[in-house]
Amino acid sequence: QQPVQSPQAVILREGEDAVINCSSSKALYSVHWYRQKHGEAPVFLMILLKGGEQKGHDKISASFNEKKQQSSLYLTASQLSYSGTYFCGTEHPNDYKLSFGAGTTVTVRA
Amino acid sequence: DSGVTQTPKHLITATGQRVTLRCSPRSGDLSVYWYQQSLDQGLQFLIQYYNGEERAKGNILERFSAQQFPDLHSELNLSSLELGDSALYFCASSFSGANVLTFGAGSRLTVL
C-alpha cells in the first residue's frame, strides 16, 4: 500500500521553510525519507522507527506520529542544494515491502 | 559510487523482446530490492530478496521475474516487452529489512 504525499510540488526561495507530509492508511513500522536529484538515484536522508520520534540532518528534520500513521519532513532555511524530489517510504509490521509515495518536487530558487 | 552496481546503464530494445538487468549489492548487504520508475513517476516496488530467498512482492507483472544468486547478485528478467515497460529500473540493497537502502544508478530501458 503506497503512502500518500503532499504537496505534489513546492517552490521556495532560499531561506524559506517547507513541510512535506506523508500518510498511510495502515499501521506503520517505519518511515524512510529519500531525496532524488534529477537524473540521479534516490539518496537516503533518514529513517524513523518509533512513534513520536524526530530526527534531523543538517537543517532537514522529520517527525513520525505512529498513532496518526503520519510523518512530516521539515526543510528549514532552504538552500539551493535542497532542490529535488523527496520520497517517503513506509514499512508496515510483518510486511517487508518498502513502498514509496509519489514524491514531492522541491524547487529552491535564489 | 554508492557501492551498488547495475548493468547495463542503458538498453534499447524492441517490443516482444526479453532483457536481463543485473545488480550487484553493496558489500555485506544481504537484501536486494527492485523498483521501477517511469517518466516523472514515483518508485514502484517490484520485488525484494533476502539472502537468496524472495521476501516481498509488489505489483510485479507476470512477464517479469527475478532471482538472487548465492553470491547475492540479482537479476531482473523482463520478457514480452511492451512500450509501457520503458522506465528506469533501480536496484537497491540493504543489510536486512527495515534498514537504509542504498540505490544503484539505475538501468534505463527503452522499448521501441
Task: Describe what you observe in this structure.
The complex is a heterodimer of chains A (110) and B (112). Chain A is mainly β and 110 residues long. Chain A has no helices and eleven strands. Chain A has strands at 4-6, 9-13, 18-23, 30-36, 43-48, 54-57, 60-65, 70-75, 84-92, 95-100, 104-109. Chain B has strands at 5-7, 10-13, 19-24, 31-37, 44-50, 53-57, 64-68, 74-78, 87-94, 102-103, 107-111. In chain B, the strands form two sheets. In chain B, strands 2, 4, 5, 6, 9, 10 and 11 form a seven-stranded mixed sheet that branches. In chain B, strands 1-3-8-7 form a four-stranded antiparallel sheet, with no helix packed on it. The model of chain B has no long low-confidence stretch (mean pLDDT 94). The chains are: A mainly beta (110), B mainly beta (112). Chains A and B meet through strand 4, strand 5, strand 9 and strand 10 of A and strand 5, strand 6 and strand 10 of B.
Which structural category do the helix and sheet elements of chain B fall into?
mainly beta
Estimated helix fraction of chain A: under 10%
Give the tally of β-strands of chain B: 11
Secondary-structure element series of chain A: EEEEEEEEEEE
Which oligomeric state applies? heterodimer
Q: Sheet with the most strands of chain B?
A: 7 strands, mixed
How far do the termini of chain A sit from each other? 37 Å
Q: What value does the average pLDDT of chain B take?
A: 94
Q: Largest interface, counted with CB-CB under 8 A?
A: A-B, 24 and 25 residues
| Major beta-sheet overview of chain A | 6 strands, mixed
Helix/strand class of chain A = mainly beta
